Amino acid sequence: MTGQRQNLLQLKADLALLGVSFIWGVTFVVVQNALSSIGPYYFLGIRFLLAFLFLAAIYHRQLVRLNRDTLGAGCIIGVFLFGGYAFQTVGLQYTTASNAGFITGLSVVLVPVFSALFTRQAPGVFAAIGVVLAATGLGLLSLGRGLSFNYGDLLVFFCALCFALHIITVGRYARHLHPPLLALIQIGIVSLAGFLFGLATETWPEHLNRPVWVALLLTAIPATALAFLIQNNVQRFTSATHTAIIFTMEPVFAALSAYFLAGEILTPRQIIGCILILSGMLLAELKGKHIRMISKTSKEVQTSTL
Predict the structure, then answer these.
(1) Which of 27, 75, 89, 271 could bond to 40 as cystine, CB 3.0-4.6 Å?
(2) Looking at residue 149, what is its pLDDT?
(3) Locate the EamA domain: which residues (predicted)?
């Protein structure tokens, strides 16, 4: 594969992942409203069950390709994915939404650390600076004037660990396994775990009202089935660090959708945070291309003068 084609594939992958972040961000308000009528675990169980059935209807003929490796990898990825949602859900009961949003976003810092440990390759300079900018922007966007850590914050930190490991494992397994089946299995695992935890800790709602069904359908199809299908298909063409930085755009899209759809106010501090996150993503996207371009131009000039 030529360098130009590889760069084009990575650009398309990053744009697709940015679209996933947009979908997750704009559906955040819908999910918040729905959780007032149904427990979070049952909501996860139904949401991911609908997503599972949607993908199974499309890829049922591909199930003959399901093997032990794909099943095992899907289960591992699914456990990390559910762990992220579960720790976040429980942690929110003991901490503030702003703390939870910031700590969850710290997965952008954890991903390159884990990548370096597992692959023994440090992230590039542009990616490292992008991570710092994105993490700083997350702090400005999510945190108030003070930050105090408590038991809930520790649980949300475990959530960030799980989401970071989810990104890492998708990047590892999606390169050589069947991406749609990988997405199908992990979604099924989250649904199963959601129902099990719901049975143990929640009461089944007497009826599901219209806003809940609207939220379930919006999150099940575009924000779950299509989002994780896209991630599993395209993340093999980009790095885990890039993916983590791009996913920090989710709270930016959430803040913008809350501003336009729910009438919430964006403070100057939050606007600066959004700009820093966007700058971090764009800087990481450069990936040293300008440096290589300058180097190439310099060599051409030297050659022409000989």
Answers:
(1) 89
(2) 65
(3) 12-142, 151-283
136, burial (CB in 10 Å: exposed 0-12, middle 13-18, buried 19+): middle
Average pLDDT for residues 130-151, to the nearest whole number?
76
- Please report which residue ranges of 37-177 form alpha helices under DSSP H: 40-59, 68-91, 97-105, 107-119, 125-142, 151-173
Statement: residue 288 has pLDDT above 60: no
**Cα radius of gyration rounded to whole Å, the chain:** 20
213-251 in b/e form (b: 16+ CB < 10 A) is: eebbebbbbbbbbbbbbbbbbbbbbbbbbbbbbbbbbbb
DSSP 61-99: GGGGG--HHHHHHHHHHHHHHHHHHHHHHHHTTTS-HHH
**pLDDT for residue 98:** 63
What is the band of 257 on the pLDDT scale with cuts at 50, 70, 90? confident
Amino acid in the structure at residue 170: V
DSSP 203-251: ---S---HHHHHHHHHHHIIIIIIHHHHHHHHGGGS-HHHHHHHHTHHH
- Do the Cβ atoms of 276 and 133 come closer than 8 Å? yes
